[in-house]
Amino acid sequence: MTSERPAPLDEDSDDDLDEDDFDELELPAPHPAFLRAFPDQLYEDQSDELTPFGSDEGWDAVAELVEDFLPLDEDATLRDLADDVLELEDEEFDATDLQRTRDTDPALIGIGFAILRLTCRIDEEGLDRLIAAVDRQRRRYGHGNATLSRIAADLSSFAGR
Q1: 55: alpha, beta or left, given left = phi > 0 and alpha = psi -120 to 50?
Q2: Which of 70, 88, 136, 139 lies in disulfide reach of 92, CB 3.0 to 4.6 Å?
Q3: Which residues contact 121 (CB under 8 A, 6 or more apart)?
């Protein structure tokens, strides 16, 4: 992904997005409280594979969320959206094995941060799963990775841990 800002999506359009539209989609506007809780520019970065919206899986998940699920229901949970957007079964959502979660973790991180970006809230189970997915990414890419360390620290602060 390039760091240039693409054109915003017309949310009133009934047309489904095709692959080319994903490249033109803009991140949804952040909730003001999200900007206070997650002020680092990495949350805007669509080019770094380790940022919430930089991986193909994370970006595609956000694009589908924007296309089909906005505005979010007040009681939307990460588990519900993982099922609706990512079509993850409960056993996939609950998986903890590094190998088994290699492809799902970036998508869960994308969806989790999309929820946070839009509402600056997330259900307790969803926050726990989001923190676990980031932790698995840190194990994959090294605990010294600055991007993943910043995300982990911000989530820990947000959770009050």
Answers
A1: beta
A2: 88
A3: 115
